[in-house]
Amino acid sequence: MASSPRYLFVTGGVTSSLGKGIVSASLAKLLQARGYRVTIQKFDPYINIDPGTLNPYEHGECYVTEDGAETDLDLGHYERFLNVPTSQANNVTTGRIYEYVIKNERDGKYQGKTVQVIPHITDEIKRRICLLGETGNFDFVITELGGTVGDIESLPYIEAVRQLKYELGPHRSAVIHLTLVPYLKAAGELKTKPTQHSVKMLLESGVQPDILVCRTEYKLTREIRAKIALFCNLQSNAVIESIDADSIYDVPLLMKKEKLDRVVLNICKLPLKNEPELTEWNEFLNRLKNPQDEIQVGLVGKYVELQDAYKSILESFVHAGTENRLKVKVHSIHSEHITEENVFRLLSPLDGLLVAPGFGERGIEGKIIAVRFARENKIPFLGICLGMQMAVVEFGRNVLKLKDCTSTEFKKSAKNPVIALMEEQTKVRQMGGTMRLGAYPCEIQKDSKAFKAYKKTRISERHRHRFEFNNKYRQAFENAGMQFSGINPDADLVEIIEIHDHPFFLGCQFHPELKSTVEIPHPLFVAFVKACYDFKLLK
Ligand code: GLN
Fold first, then answer.
1. Ligand 1 centre distance from Cα of residue 367 (Å)
2. Ligand 1 center–CA 426 separation, angstroms
3. 498 pairs with which residues across the strands?
4. Taking a C-beta distance cutoff of 8 angstroms, is the pair 52, 432 a contact?
5. Of 307, 311, 252, 248, which is closest to residue 71 (Cα–Cα)?
6. Which of 385, 405, 508, 532 does the annotation list as catalytic?
7. CA dihedral (310, 316, 320, 323) positive or negative
8. Is residue 424 flagged as an active site residue?
9. In the chain, what percentage of residues exceed pLDDT 70?
10. Cβ atoms within 10 A of the Cβ of 171, count?
11. Annotated catalytic, 385?
12. What is residue 121's DSSP assignment?
């Protein structure tokens, strides 16, 4: 076991979207598979306190941890790869750093000193970087820095890394810099100059990277590696190729081939221990690549233009599909485009329908039409959060024939507010961090599809919403054939709804997609995918 934690920093150069999150998670996986205890944290240079108030078009999905932190979607990758939960401590933003420093200033903690970026902000960054390491729970703390080197807002972070590297001393830290090695078609060559420039930029801030991970579409030749090594002051084994992969789940194996974990352990003067134990991971990949059949699932949402907006849902389908030996082809359908006229054409080719979470009124009528189509045509349906709420509204309108039936999120004065605010939420004015967030228990009825999936009566799932099923309507809905198969035992809130007379119609107020991992695919997704396949075979 390592005597003191090692700190690995992952920075990005040249462009964004090079896959820092996946490389960090892959390295963590390899170290974990060698028997080390690893955690990953993400530091984001933007000024929002957390990504909770960000539109998904900005940074993609907002990932929620067990302790109710609204975080960057990279934390989702960390959990899916490592199967270890993260927490608020794993995601820090500039806004949070400044909020803390300014509060200290107001409380007189700086004793009359001028409060400055250096040392006050950088000290606070360093303190937060080391927090998880100080728990004694980890041999490695991997810190991924958001943004790209050279961004004005990244500067204090790079300076904090420089100081920490110095303060920790030799073998206690390593900087891993991700760059791009583009292929110029006209020249027929891979180009190293952007990488050289990016390293120069880091050097200007006093940081010499220890390892370069070079994203590329083509293999890096020995000459290219040597050239990059020479101009960036590195051993050529510290120049790691990160070639485009078919699946993000291939990346740990690609990094293993490139010996990234070995290079890190060498720098940190730690034993290699065993070879990475990746039997289960390999089995997963094998199943992923050799599906026996495929299903077509519709994902009805309003952020479908952006892949990242539904990241965890898409990954949950990969896990659940693999578990069922099926390829799940997800067809994104814009909820605003669904009408009574085109619903048959759009949805009838599908084997199942997932209605996505969301906020605000845009697109909800399309979601309701989609729910009705799935309910009436007995197409497997999974509604998540707003998706469940719209299933309740649809049932109220079309089965119970309730007039003016909706959620108070969209119409405060609705005659039949079947989805409404909980009492304590009615007083909330501030937007950030005030929803029902994080893990809550749920009690499952034995005679239900949920129980068949989970195989237990007590579960815990993560939430991110304000509105709830309005309990005044419970009896009427039950009488008409809706089952409330999952209930929060402490607050008597409806967490899961089902419809009896349907092969698979299930809505959940929580977000199952946040807990699906490679090792433990989420039971609801596994059951839903299976139901879709059964439906396909019957068609
Ligand atoms: N807008 C709904 C609510 O706040 C649903 C939220 C969600 O889908 N995450 O309750």
1. 14
2. 15
3. 483, 506
4. yes
5. 311
6. 385
7. positive
8. no
9. 97
10. 13
11. yes
12. I
pTM listed for this prediction: 0.94
409 noted as active-site residue:
no
Identify whether the C-beta of residue 191 lies closer than 8 Å to the C-beta of residue 224.
no
Q: Which of 177, 268, 513, 522 is catalytic?
A: 513
pLDDT at 428 (0 to 100): 66
> For residue range 88-146, what is the model confidence (pLDDT) as tens digits?
999 999 999 999 999 999 999 999 999 999 999 999 999 999 999 999 999 999 999 99
User: 359: Cβ below 6 Å to ligand 1?
Assistant: yes
175 Cβ closer than 6 Å to some ligand 1 atom: no
pLDDT tops 80 at residue 425: no
- Taking only the tens place, the pLDDT of each residue in 457-510 is 999 999 999 999 999 999 999 999 999 999 999 999 999 999 988 999 999 999
CA distance 173 to 6: 5
| Position 427 pLDDT exceeds 80 | no
Query: Burial code of 339-377, b = ≥16 C-beta within 10 A, e = fewer?
Result: eeeebeebbeebbbbbbbbbbeeebbbbbbbbbbbbbee
Q: Which of 70, 511, 522, 532 is catalytic?
A: 511
Calculate how far, in angstroms, residue 226's C-alpha sits from the geometric centre of ligand 1.
52
User: What CA–CA distance (Å, rounded) separates 256 from 276?
Assistant: 8
Query: 330 falls in which pLDDT band (50, 70, 90)?
Result: very high
CA 207–ligand 1 middle distance (angstroms)? 43
Q: From the alpha carbon of 468, which atom of ligand 1 is closest?
A: 10
- Over residues 231-270, the pLDDT tens digits come to 999 999 999 999 999 999 999 999 999 999 999 999 999 9
The answer on pLDDT for 431 being more than 70 is no
Residues 6+ apart with CB under 8 A from 321: 288, 291, 295, 327, 328, 529
Ligand 1, atom 1, lies closest to the CA of 359
Confidence label for 14 from pLDDT (cuts 50, 70 and 90):
confident
Name 319's Cβ contacts closer than 8 Å, sequence gap at least 6.
80, 516, 517, 518, 521, 522, 525
Nearest Cα to Cα of residue 192 among 235, 238, 225: 225
pLDDT at 2: 43
Smallest CA separation from ligand 1 atom 3, residue: 465
218 lines ligand 1 (CB under 6 A): no
Structure tokens belonging to residue 507: 């809505």
51 close to ligand 1 (CB < 6 Angstrom): no
